[in-house]
Amino acid sequence: MILTSARCVRFLSLLICLLSASLCHAQSIKNADGATIRNMAANTVAQLDQNNHYTDFLTQADLNELPVGLKRTVNNITYKLAISSAVFHPTYAELTIFAKVEIPQKPGVLFFGVSGLKLSYEGGILGDAKLVLLGDVHIDFNGGNGEIVLRGGLDIVNGQRLDGLTYLSMDCKGFKEMGLSADVIFPRSLLVPCTPNGDQIADVTKKVTGSFNTIVSDWNDILVNINLPRFQIAKLTDVVFTVSNATLDLSDKRNNPNVMFPTGYESRYMPYPNPGMWRGVYIQNLDVMLPKAFSKKNSTERISFGSNNLLIDNNGVSGSFYGKNILSYNEGSASGDRRCATHLPIFCRETLMPTYLGKSICLSLLMLPTEERDSTIQLCPTDLV
Fold first, then answer.
1. Domain spans, the chain
2. 104 prior amide bond cis, ω within 30
3. What is the pTM of this model?
4. In principle, which of 158, 174, 247, 289 could form an S-S bond with 240, CB 3.0–4.6 Å?
């Protein structure tokens, strides 16, 4: 009987130590800053990999030895979840969990975490099973012609995920899906944001930025609509683009079903096994505002026409646009002269430097004036050099 009592004392002491350690670990999560929490996540997953203590289905019994984890691979992306601590209650255990996702884009890894997730002793997770992205993550895409900023954070006070941010959801088998909340930002060397009347915004800290929220089950199959403000192509001054339908394509499997590549583009600029591997931003519908030199007489309103099919990818900005019967001779003025614009085909590749052959017009400009008949101003399709 004395031996039994001694064993009980040792067992209770061990249990108290485990509970104290778990409580201390949970408290450290709540009081840590973002960098410290990311280091905790990295170290926990590294320890899990070293011990290879993975399970196929998480139960209470798996919490006897920590860290314990779940692992799943989807389309060459591995999602690892590591339980770093557990606080035991009468009917459930309260877990601190980190996740690591290795991605092909820089910085190469995403870390997620949550404290306070509840695992029922009867099986299953109670309530919301979502881990928040640990801080904002900047991801390069299109060879430096764009940046995706995944929005993340961690409430340091109570260790819970914040709503409206990027998260990873899980169940007792592991990874389920990711909710992405992100901005898409383009450098001013490529696109320049504009005011509502089409003037460039001089503040160099302002950039063309879109945003999106979506849920994906495969990191390599992201295809989502985004909104973009008015912009000018940096090397196509005073021609303003307004987007009404844009798609961010980060999928290795598919494109927007409406995507149309310029003639010869696939053979010259897409060294992929199939077009479905193309990545970038496809703009299906857009409004093209002509340079200020084109206007109706006695009016300051800019002239514009609808067009479609603009690409922004690792090659820069590409597309062809065509406007017909834009401005009649009697209405037209080009820097004070009577002009009309009946046909305006434009081909541009931003990676090439435009030729300047007219006032503030960044394309080859041909003027055929006459007082007795309509004249034509044609922006000729040309390789911009």
1. 19-134+157-176
2. no
3. 0.79
4. 289
